[in-house]
Fold this sequence. Notes:
Elements: H1 4-12, E1 23-24, E2 30-31, E3 40-41, H2 42-56, H3 63-66, H4 72-84, E4 91-94, H5 97-115, E5 121-125, H6 130-143, E6 148-152, H7 158-161, E7 166-172, H8 184-192, E8 197-201, E9 220-223, E10 237-241, H9 285-289, H10 291-298, H11 303-324, E11 331-332, E12 344-348, H12 352-361, E13 364-365, E14 367-369, E15 373-377, H13 385-400
Parallel strand pairs: 2-13, 5-6, 5-7, 7-8, 8-9
Antiparallel strand pairs: 1-3, 4-10, 9-10, 11-12, 12-15, 14-15
Helix pairs in contact: 4-10, 5-6, 11-13
Bound molecules: pyridoxal-5'-phosphate.
Amino acid sequence: MITLEQCQAWDQADELAGLRQQFDLPEGTIYLDGNSLGALPRNALVRAQDVISREWGVDLINSWNKAGWWDLPTRLGDQLAPLVGAGEGEVVVTDTTSLNLFKVVANAVRIQQRRHPEKKIILAERDSFPTDLYMIQGFSEFLDQGYVLQLIDQPEDLEKAVTGDTAAVVLSHVNYRSGYLYDMQSVNELVHAQDALIIWDLCHSIGAVPMSLKESGADFAIGCTYKYLNGGPGSPAMLWAHPRHRADFWQPLSGWWGHARPFDMSTEYTADAGIRSFLCGTQPILSMSLVACGVDIFLQTDMQKIRRKSLALTDLFIQLVEQECSGQDLELVTPRDHKYRGSHVSFRHPQGYAAIQALIARGVIGDYREPEVMRFGVTPLYLGYRDIWHAVQHLKAVLHGREWDQEKFRVRGQVT
Ligand SMILES: *Cc1c(COP(=O)(O)O)cnc(C)c1O
């Protein structure tokens, strides 16, 4: 039996516990949704004030040079590169994950058109976050060159599905619903053995699990900064491309920010030779400026320590749910095996939606994903062991007391 006292002892021994002070979290809330929208770093308020009042208000247009606004996408890319195992000059922060996926799929297909024009399949998972599938579909329709999206139903099907016809494979490193984690290295090898290219969506793994994009030999990666990285709602996404593709960097959204010499105001587009070629137009500087605040906190520790605590907390969550909520129709969706587990825990429950609403009413914020999946994000920077204990006690009360069985908890907001 795990007890509250035990959780308290774990909190006292937790070397990451002090980092919570750097977040501004509302009193009385246990936030288990940092995998969807990260919490507010305290220094973001200070930074926002400075960007707005000094950089914008006083220095005005000089800030493109003086405050380094122009270089912000690559500066932030360099700052977060260590979190994903990328090198300097290999990452940009720009646009959205959806848009960045479009660019890297286009780049991968362009490379394959030259090397292996007979390859026409883009492989992804049926269980992908839908925008990924929509973007691939849109790209293929627009290109109109016979590229088809093929979907696998489960990770175990990947090995057979990657064939000589596969041009590119697009996978979520951690699945947004189940929390399943792919072994990046072995997938890269499997994909490359068929001369296909691999694109990783890191939305649910960046800032959650350690990875070595470059060393593992991945081709492209894209991902959010507003989830585990705490960049703020709608903060721009990241994009990484392996430097071995540098001579082949190309993307169709060839806006002036990707130009080698944008202020030549030339009629001809000449792409930047490096990762800036993945930029398109003017960036949302206010939002982008805050990305550094979240990443700064990560750089005070390291991903191995974060991973150790993440696994301890997700283990604890699973064990406590099984200890406290047995017989309540909960079915664990997330892999038990650490090798295949990201940093959130999902349970299916027939009343999952209403149960999540009842939990939110108690100050425990998780979220819901169709079908029937209650999702709990575990963020080691600002969650402790006692938070997990209390969250499970609330879940127990909601389920045992059938608190979900109220009309007000069945009402669906625009965002679930
Ligand atoms: C959150 C998420 C996205 C979101 O893409 P946006 O363009 O930022 O809306 C994409 N893919 C995955 C896997 C996600 O989890």
